[in-house]
Structures are given as C-alpha cells and as structure tokens.
Amino acid sequence: MRMMKSLLAATALMTLMSGAAYAKTLVYCSEGSPEGFDPGLYTSGTTFDAASRTIYNRLLEFKHGSTELEPGLAESYTVSDDGLVYTFKLRSGVKFQTTDYFTPTRDMNADDVVFSFERQLDSNNPFNQYVAGAVYEYAQAMGFPGLIKSVEKVDDLTVKFTLNQPNSPFLADLGMDFASIVSKEYADKLKAAGNENDFNQKPIGTGPFTFVAYQPDAVIRYKANPDYYKGKEKIDDLVFAITPDATVRVQKLKSGECQIMPYPNAADVADLKADSNLTVLEQAGLNVAYLAYNTTQPPFDKVEVRKALNMAVDKKAVVQAVFQGLAEVAKNPIPPTMWSYNNDIQDDPYDPEKAKQMLADAGVKDLTMNIWAMPVSRPYMLNARRAAEIIQAGFAKIGVTANIVTYEWGDYLKRAGQKDHDGAVILGWTGDNGDPDNFLATLLGCDGVGTSNNVAEFCDPKFDDLTKKAAATADMAERTKLYEEAQVEFKAQAPWMTLDHSTVVMPMSKKVIGYKQDPLGIHRFDGVDLAE
Amino acid sequence: MLQYLLRRLAILIPTFIGVSLVAFAFIRVLPGDPVLLLAGEHGMSPERHAEAMHLLGFDQPLPIQYLNYLAGILHGDFGQSIVTKRAVLSEFFARFPATLELSICAMILAAGIGIPAGVLAAIKRGSTFDHGIMGSALVGYSMPIFWWGPLLIILFSGILRWTPVSGRISLLYYFPQRTGFMLIDSLLSGQPGALASAVSHLILPAIVLATIPLAVIARQTRSAMLEVLGEDYMRTARAKGLPPSRVIGLHALRNAMIPVITTIGLQVGVLMAGAILTETIFSWPGVGKWMVDSVFRRDYTVIQGGLLIIALIIMMVNLAVDILYGLINPRIRRQ
Questions:
Q1: Handedness of CA A8, A13, A17, A23 (dihedral sign)
Q2: Is the dihedral of CA A198, A125, B55, A450 positive or negative?
Q3: Contact B193 A13 (CB under 8 A)
Q4: Inter-chain contact A135–B52, Cβ cutoff 8 Å?
Q5: What is the pTM (predicted TM-score) of this model?
Q6: What is the DSSP string of A422-465?
Q7: Shortest alpha-carbon distance between residue B225 and chain A (Å)
Q8: Which of A108, A282, A294, B184 has the most C-beta neighbours closer than 10 Å?
C-alpha cells in the first residue's frame, strides 16, 4: 500500500508539474473510436465529431448551436432563377493544415471543392476506390448521385453545381459532414506515393484543429490550427479520451480526468447536476421516436383504426419509464426546435374508452398484432422494449392483443423496410441537416416506401404533394407554410403514433467556457475556452 | 520427446481448420450485414444494397469467400477491415501488446497470490484461514466482471481517488510507442513520472482481470496439495526428519504443480474472454475491445481474423503447456 501511495503521489506531482507545460488542454471523454478520418466514408456521429467538425470545413456551415446556415469556405452563393444552378464564391487565402506528413504548397481552391464531391459521386474518379470497398453511404442516402448533374470549376475561386431538379434542402446538405472539403493536393501526393490509405488515417483539412496522433481505441490528439481562417482557437490542445462505458465517463469527469463528456446514463444525471464542480447542459434533441403502422396492411389501412390505437396509449408513461423524464411527448413528426414546427396541432387525446368505441365502429374485433421493438438503444429511444410493453398494456385495455417482436438491428431495419411487413414498428430518426424535408419527405414521402426510411409505407398524395412543393420552393415563408400544412395532413392521417423527442444532456466541468450544444447532435469544440 | 512434440503439432492442423471455419461461419450466421449497419436508419434500396455488397466482396458464394479467405491466411494476409480499411494483422498487432501486458500482469497477480494462498489453505486445512480463503475464492470466481470493474472504479477512483479511472497512462504524457508495452515505453521515454502513471493505470484492470483466474488457481492448488500431502512418500519425507519447508516446497509443491500448470494454461483462454469486458470497462485499447467494436460494426474480416489469431495464440499456449508437462513429468512424454 505504501508503494502504491508513493506511486500515486509521484503521479499527482507530475500532473501538477506538467500542468504548466500543457496549458489549455481540453480533454473530451468521447464515447467510441472513430472508424476513420475521411468523413465521406462514414455515417456515425462518433466519427464526425473526431473528423469532420474538428479537422475539416464545408462550403456552408451550421451556425454554432443552431441549424441555420452561415458562410463557410464559400463566402457567398447565387441560385439561378430556375433553382437548378448554384454558384459558390470561395473564400480566398484559406490554408490547408501543415503537419509533419504534409505541407501544402497552395491555398484551398475550386479544384479541392470539385474533387471533394466527384470522388464520392463518380465511380470513375481515380480516388473513388482509394480504399477497396469504399461506400460513400451518406452522399448516397441524401440522394446526391441523382440530384447533382455536375460540379464544375468556373475559376480558381468559383464553383458551379448544376442540379437535375430544384431542391431547396440542397444548401443544408452542403453543411453536412460528408460534404467536408478535402485537399486534392494531398490526395494527389498520396496517390503518387502509393499511400492512399493515409488519406483516411492522417487527415488534412482546413478546420479549427490539426490532427496530431491517434492511438487506436485510446486517444486522439489535436492541436489548434495556427492558420485557421477564423483565427487560432483559444485552447491549444484538444484530446479525445475514448471511453465507451458511460459510468466510467462520469467517473472521469468527476475526477477531473476529462472536462466534458457526452451521453451520460439517465440514472446518473441527477448526481451530475448535484456536483458543484459541474454544469449540465440540456437541449431538446433534433429527433423523434414513433410507432409506425403499416398503412398498406389491413386493418391499419383504415385511418380510424390508427387513430383509435393512438388514443389507447398513455405516452407520458412511456417518456417517464424510458427517459426518466428526460424527453418530451411528441405530437408532430418533427421536433419543436425545428423551423416550421406546427404548434397549433392538437395531439390525439389519451382516451381508452373512446378508442374502444372507435375500433368497434370501424368493425375491428379481437385484433391481434405485432409491435416491433428495436434491439438497440438510440438517442431517440433508449429502451424500445420497455416502450413496447407500455404500448402493449395500452392496447390490451381496448381489447387489442399485441405481441412484442424483435430482431437483430441490421435485420430489423431490413425487415421493417419490406413493404409487406406486419403490425407496427418502433423506430426513430435524428435530423441530418436541420431541414424539415429531412424528416417529412424522407420518412413519410412516397419515394421512401419499401425502404427502412418509410416503415409506415405511407404514401398520401396530399402530404407528398405538399412536401415536394416545399422542397422545390426557395422562399422560406412559403416553405414554412407548406410544411405546417403537411403536419396537419400527417395528424389527420395518423400513419404513426408519435412517441417522443428526447433531451440531449451534456455534463461538463465549470471550467469549460463557451460550449454550445448542437441541435444536430454534433460535438464541436471550436470557440470553446478553459478557465485558468 | 521429439515424437511427442510432433504428435502435439499434428493435432494443431485439424484444430486450425476447424477454428478457421467457425470464425468464418460465426459472424455470417448472425442476421444483418455490414452495409445495413452502415446505412443505419437511412433506408437503402435493394439495388443500392446489392451494389454496396458487391463493392465489399460479399456477393460471392460462401464457399468461394471461405476459400479466398483461407488462401489469404496461408499467405499471411488476414484481410482488410471493412470499416477502417486497414490490414487486420496490423490492427491486431497495434493492440495486442496492450492486451498481453494486461494479461501477463493479471496472471502474475493471480498465480503470485493464488498458489501461496492455495498451499497455505491446504496446510492449514479446516482452519478459519482455510475457510476464509476458500470462501473468498468462491466469491471471486462468481464475480461478474461487468459489475466488479465499475464497483472498484467507483470506490478507488471515484471516492478514494487512489487510482485513475481508465486508460493506460495519463493523457499528459505523450511519447512514441516503441514496443507497445506501456510499462516499457514509459520507462524508455525518460519522462519523469510516466512509469508511475502507467503502473497506477494498470492496477485496477489487472485486479479485475485476475480475480477469476486467482480464485481458480487457489482452489486448484489447494486440492492438488491436499492430494499430494496424503501420499505415502510425504509421510516418508517427514519421517526422514526433513524440515517442513523442504517437505512442502520440494516434495509436495513440485508434484502438485502439474494440475496447477494445466489450470494456468487453461486460464489464458479465460483471460482473453475476461479481457473483452475488462478492456471495455477500463477503456483499455486492447484486442478485446477491438473485437467487441467489430462485432457491433459487423466488421466481418476483423471478427474472423481476430478470432483466428486469438485461437492460434491459445493453441500455442496450450502447446507450450503440453511441452512443459512433458518436461516436468517424464511419464507423459513416453506415453
């Protein structure tokens, strides 16, 4: 024990001594290892936190703490009258990071922008398969191959995107992680040397932090980029201490081994709030969880049946049991923090008696159905099994027998995506870009039928028309009106039982200054400072 | 001895083929595939799914996939991770020193405490000490790691603040990894305090990982010792007037060691299994944590490659135990 104590004393002493040398190091206890550092290749938030938001920039950026867009690497843009041509004027003098493995010889220009998109969209681009089996899933998921006709360089600082059809959400898509701008010069250099794989392991971007080193599954180190176009960050070093266990993250935060952490267990939140050294930020997440009825299968093809089932469940009980209050009951398919949220809509009341009557009126007797419960915990639904049990109990009260079924996650999504799947499916969504189109059209549009996006297999002509019109309109006020109307139609048709919008909790040391929670669930450290 | 060795080596070949088949089939039996998981909630058309599966090479018939995989292994190529796009073998060896370091320390702890505890319990059979040791061993053996790890963290790191919570070394130290063994690298770095930091980070995970093997070793040592202590030659040794330390240390312990060494050999597999949980809890960047992540990501090549490499290592350890056996007990190698 004496030995251990002296060892610990020595460690503590060293910690103090080296404190001065490592001034302003922010340690973030991250929840997992990044899959790589090329944001084009991946879809997970963990990878985006570690790669795109730290190391890279995009043409347009989301304002810190909001889903509003602001100029990024593009200083300004113009849209042609027919909504098909977007011309971006690039910022001049933006430098790619200088590291021990790459020194740029020129500033960021139109070649880099064209390359950043073409490598993902054109399978003949020499860098498309720079690693075998590269699947640019996010660009695919956002429909870029079908949407973008061409990306062209007009001059060194001007790039022109031509679309196949007008699409207002396109601008918000450009703020997304997969649309990060990478260095063509660096890619060319790696290709010449036959080290293409380094593109995904030793990243070079224009962002606020420069990559220093990654020890797999342990730690990622960055330093402030001295050449950052917005000026050097206030913290000198940023460290991601990879800590997958939520309980351990909490302990590390409390003991000062890190200053900020994501995703605490709901059970730990009260304890964290009670700690006088910590601040706990909370924000409504840009997400929704729902129970989607297969609207093509009887009896769920009848709107009265869907409405009756919606009225049979006490959704407050779901929120309490699953989130211990850290969520709010959902009435619309988009979260309240999103523009065009229609607050005038009244949710279906919890009224089992009336629900029973409505079922009888619809001629439905002795209904037996399946409720699908997701096997994984997601930010919008921590425990689908528990939620399913409460829904099951609610249905039982109106004489509906529900069996809870579940499948392995990949299989679950695959089966739920099949058009003729049975019963009702619990699923949810976290917004990609803050545009209502990303919820309403993606999850409920006719185009999504037969995929795991639209598991209600909902194809309502009026709703589809409204969202399509909104996507083709550039005027914000007009779009807002159309989306508000679409929500009214959604409520009238009731393809889902909307369950909840969860709250995102972010505990941190009181020394952390200027951290803003991001509605898109991204963890950003630009603009953050540490008190001495 | 040579014949004995060759016999042992011959057994390895069918075992290797069996393991490679199991490793290959294991992940494919599970429903779901890497492409679906990559897309997550984002729906994917069947055409796009087929295209992505083709890009990853999973559209070929299973026997062809297996033969390609086997051919690769025979050339020392365990494939490339679907997710990180790096060679499986280099990913493995980047993490293996961390697991090995933790396992060796845990084994030293388990054997260093387990054997003396077992011997003492056997000598003092029926005493309170004996009951205490065996009772603790039973508790240790039944201790679930996922509960025991966080419990120790909360007590020693959270409340008492004696040890760091997780990781291999304080983040304040940053030096190149020369061997991958943090104890050695921290010593080589010459940075004052680095070794102490590495040791303090190793204590809790080593205790957690050592708990089950320690219990097993203590129980095995005790029962082996009791058996040997009842033998005629022990009575003879005592009757000759040998001092008790010689009777126990030379005659009893040496003969009791054979089953104990077997147990220790078998515990290597247990350590590997335990490392999966221990590493996840303590954010220890080793092979166990890497495998868990890969299962969740359906990283087929990593799972099958990782399983195979781990199985190979366990096979080698068992071979070493067999050889050690032969050395300790001449009767075995003549069989």
A1: positive
A2: positive
A3: yes
A4: yes
A5: 0.84
A6: -SEEEEEEE-SSS-THHHHHHHHSGGGBTSSSBTT----HHHHH
A7: 30
A8: A108
